[in-house]
Amino acid sequence: MKTVRKFLRNGLGVIGAVIILVLILVAIFAPQIAPFDPNAQDYNKVMMQPDGEHLFGTDDLGRDIFSRVVYGARISIQAALISVGIAMLIGVPIGLLSGYYRGFWDEWVVMRSVDAMQAFPFLILALAISAVLGSGFGNAMLAIGIGFAPAFIRITRGQVLSLRNMEYIQAARSVGVKDARIIFRHILPNALNPIVIQATLAMASGIIAEASLSYLGLGVQPPTPSWGSMLNQAQTLMSVAPYATFYPGIAIFLVVLGFNLLGDGLQQVLDPRSRK
Amino acid sequence: MTTILEVEQLRTRFRTDSGVVSVVDGVDFSIRAGETLGVVGESGCGKSVTSLSIMRLLPPNGNTSGTIRFHGKDVLGLSEKEMQAVRGNEIAMIFQEPMTSLNPLHTVGRQIEEAVMLHRQVTKAQAKERAIAMLKAVGMPRAEEIYGEFPHQLSGGMRQRVMIAMAMSCDPKLIIADEPTTALDVTIQAQILDLMRDLKEKTGTSIMLITHDLGVVAEMCDRVIVMYAGQVVEETDVDTLFESPKHPYTIGLMNSIPELDEEREYLETIPGAVPLPHQMPTGCRFAPRCSRAMPICNEKPPELLQLNGTKCRCWLYAEEGEQQ
Amino acid sequence: MMFVVRRLLLTIPILLLVSIMTFSLIHMIPGDPARVILGQEATPEAYQALRTELGLDQPIVVQYFSWLGKVLQGDLGISITDRVPVSELIMQRLPATVELTIGTFLVAILIAFPAGILAAVRRGTWVDYTSTFTALGGMSIPSFWLAMMMIIFFAVNNQWLPASGYVPFLENPTQNLLAMILPCLATGLRESAVLMRMLRSSLLDVVSMDFIRTAKAKGLNEARTILGHALRNAMVPVVTTSGLMIAGLLGGLVITESIFSIPGFGRLIVESVFKRDYVTVQGAILVSAVLVVMVNLAVDMLYAVIDPRIKAGKGAGE
Fold first, then answer.
1. Subunit contact A260:C205, Cβ cutoff 8 A
2. Which structural domain, as residue segments, surrounds residue A90?
3. Helices A122-133 + C265-274 axis angle, to 10
4. PANTHER family annotated for this entry (chain B) (predicted)?
5. Which chains touch B (3 or more CB pairs under 8 A)?
6. Is the separation of the CB atoms in B185 and B174 below 8 Å?
7. For chain A, what is the domain count?
8. Contact A245/C204, CB-based, under 8 Å?
9. In C, residues 242-281, which contact A (CB 8 Å cutoff)?
10. Which value does ipTM take for this structure?
11. CB spacing of A238 vs C151 below 8 angstroms
12. How confident is the model over B65-123, as pLDDT tens digits?
């Protein structure tokens, strides 16, 4: 409760949480909020300036940009959750085991592989994985998730290394508590804070990464409305319909800002070493 | 002897999350030219904050009131720029932790030179000469080489000598030494104290020596103030202090010094701890820990009484004080 | 010296793993790589020829070592679609990306240093809050969208700066630099936000240290204390971030290059991905990873220059 109250006093963090909450609500209630079918084309209303009927205007196929931005929230929130979920599913267990058992596997296999993985620039790694697996939302998520995994291995392992020598862990070991129980009951709960912070900040990067891949044409495929692919399509119309590039970008910005603010706020509340 | 530093009713408060706390609460004392004044007390009693208040080096949430007069100058009334001309020049400071008080990325020589060049109109070459001379003066072997070395290449004692060389480099009138030997080994402590005494005799500078160690006081000081919970509880010359300590707190401190010629089973310690600034007792601040506390001690805070050559803040001496 | 040697030796296993990962790329293609590359309609002769060219008819360990042997001699294979050596394609594309990286980095430090120092010195004031919040905002702007907004404002609505038209620097320096302004700003602004936050927090760590108090006790003013004593001590994490940033940029400029039609290294990868030119993709990502390893190596060497304790084999934390 104390943590919650401390967090609520962190103004920016709360703003972040509110932004994300709004995003989730918009994603859930997209059909109720959107005035038009996001994919309905209307050739009589192509590239209309924003007005009372089409709040954000229409695109080159006469689709309502507002409705597409609203539906795009669904892709965005999925991108954040799935990519980071995959990264944690890979990274946290490996980090736990590697840090707990240490030795040759940890030092020479896991950590050097992490080094090697992190040598590939993130987007290039994602591109290469997409190249192999093919384009599409699922593969983009896998590519981003794999790209994020090394960071989670590192952070989890670092936590385990500092926790495994604590008295209470040593004590548990000396009385013969099983390794699995020590790892999941004693180490993981105490290692969770930095992982949660990292996850929140990674969601911000995940949204940008998904938008980037979709922008390049490797993520979500048309006609599914995603903010990245909307920007891709709007780019060719920049000189005639600049508003078409404006709203999807603002949407990405706000959501990413939300996750960054939340992550920052959590860091100040959960991480005792962080500064004011 | 002329008085060079006069502190009156010094109060230092800090703004914190749990409100404003008063760490130094109405402290008076003075230092005469060429004198060494000891400031004694347990940690947390406001000694270091007193010294940082004089230097005006408190963190931004600190605030000082009262009067600090140094050589006729009203220290608290100086502009920041005027204060910078005082720091390191007229008042220099030596800190407790020689391991962390030097910049790890600059050579020793550069750190001494910096002060010289800041306060004296000298060329780089002259400043270097001065730095090497200072290193020699603090008893450094191979001063020319050490001039170009980094702090991590030196031992703790050597680093503290560097700190002293730095502090002395502009011939300050007052040196504030905040627990200068606490972080050092016993044998090194003695060497550093000897060095400080020698330098003081040669230069005639005054020293304000902050310590929790009465052994250091006996060896170094002319006069002593004992501080407790942000206040001065006893002030006297060093001989009187050891011959007839007045305040129960001072007596308690005395009894907790291990003595070689006495075979005591247990080292006496004062029970309890210094009260936290925001939960000060209403009466005498020492009363909760005092073995001689009387009913009045818990009700009314005692004044600093003028006794025979001693000042003492204790109800035990109330009558004696009135007679004086 | 020991530090340098140890650090160099440590890169060997990393480079080996990088090469294995890159090599595996073609083999991770679901199904038969040659079939996937050529499509179902390819003649059996063409199919067989590609298998031989890629060495797919040999045992995988043999394939790896013969590939590694060639790579070590600078032979990254022949592009499947363009039929020119991949190394040549990469060399053509690298200069533009390197230029973009340098420009972006310049923009980033020119903004981050004054802002970061100011925020740290004026901590807790509106200057600090404004710059910290702006930085958080800056970090959240997708750089490709910022690029588009800049194009709309600077190139479409006002014809102040070109949005495309890259020419090599040696061909026409003025036009080259003009065409680089918007791309460098668009990516540099975001990076400056990251760097500024790092610098601020690192400086705040340092200014609470004992030797800063010593510097002030000497009579130094705020500016000389920060610039002369705090800044260099705050540089280690900043150099780390800068290294990561440069490393990331070398490959991560993919999108900036696409938007501003700059024929850079990142674009080569995107184009090759779409053309299913796996040999070029493979060569390019290998080069990008090796560049990153080199930048990281350079960063570690820089630590030793900044901090004399590292050369002596002691950690900076001691």
1. no
2. 1-270
3. 10
4. DIPEPTIDE TRANSPORT ATP-BINDING PROTEIN DPPD, OLIGOPEPTIDE TRANSPORT ATP-BINDING PROTEIN APPD
5. C
6. no
7. 1
8. no
9. 247-252, 254-255, 258-259, 266, 269-270, 272-274, 276, 278, 281
10. 0.86
11. yes
12. 999 999 888 999 999 999 999 999 999 999 888 888 999 999 999 999 999 999 999 99
